[in-house]
Amino acid sequence: VAENIDSTFESLMKVLEKNKIELKTELQKVAKTKLEILEEQTTGLVALKKQMEDAEDVSDCVLVSPNSVAFMQTERAIIKRLDKLATGVYEASPRELPTFGFYDDSLESKFEQVVAHSAQIWSSSISPGKSVTIVDETYWEDDSVRFTVIPQDYRGIPIKIDSAVMRATIKDPKGNTISCVLTPRQDDYSLIDVTADVSGLGRHLLSVYMGETIVASAEFDRTRVYLRSTLPLGQAQKVISLDLDETDA
């Protein structure tokens, strides 16, 4: 009986030892596979960083270019780099990286938003003289003014633009800065109304910015306004009163 027990015990020990070795081997194999996946994705992230840095270098070159011809020469390169980022780096079915919070459902929309925002800034920086055209100006009796502007690309073609990337200010004769409100027209996608309350009289300066670049400016004299008449778009007519008894049109 004792010999039978010893034999059975030794047999069980061998089975346990074998299972222990097999389990250790399997764990090592799984760990190695996981490590290889992480190393592969680390390599992909390094490549992604390099491509994004390259794209940033290209955009920097575009921003400092003095004319639209330079932009047209580099535009294709920018598009190719963005396409490569979209199709060659981001995986359709990521494996390990979701654990680290790299992928997100809204990543694609955020990426598109950043690209669109940057493209608008690039276009205005290349050819600021064509970026915004002031087509109408109106002076109201309640001391408010309104300028209507058309955002354009580097070729001078009207475009729909997010007014959030634009801002405008008015500087009065005393050097005070008045912030303007930008409102896209509902009836015409390419028109933006720039309005502000101007209570002081005298010569004022309107400045329209795209990012930190002034893309349009206009000087105007603010006097007491009693009548306002506007001709067809682009041919604004100001009707102002120089004093209480005389009205000039």
UniProtKB/TrEMBL annotation:
Q: Would the keyword Coiled coil be found if you checked this record's keyword annotation? A: yes
InterPro entries reported in the protein's UniProt record: Ig_E-set
Protein's name according to its UniProt entry:
Uncharacterized protein
Where in this chain does the entry annotate a coiled-coil region? 13-58
User: Which keywords accompany this UniProt record?
Assistant: Coiled coil
Q: Which domain of life is it from?
A: Eukaryota
The species this protein belongs to is Magallana gigas (Pacific oyster)
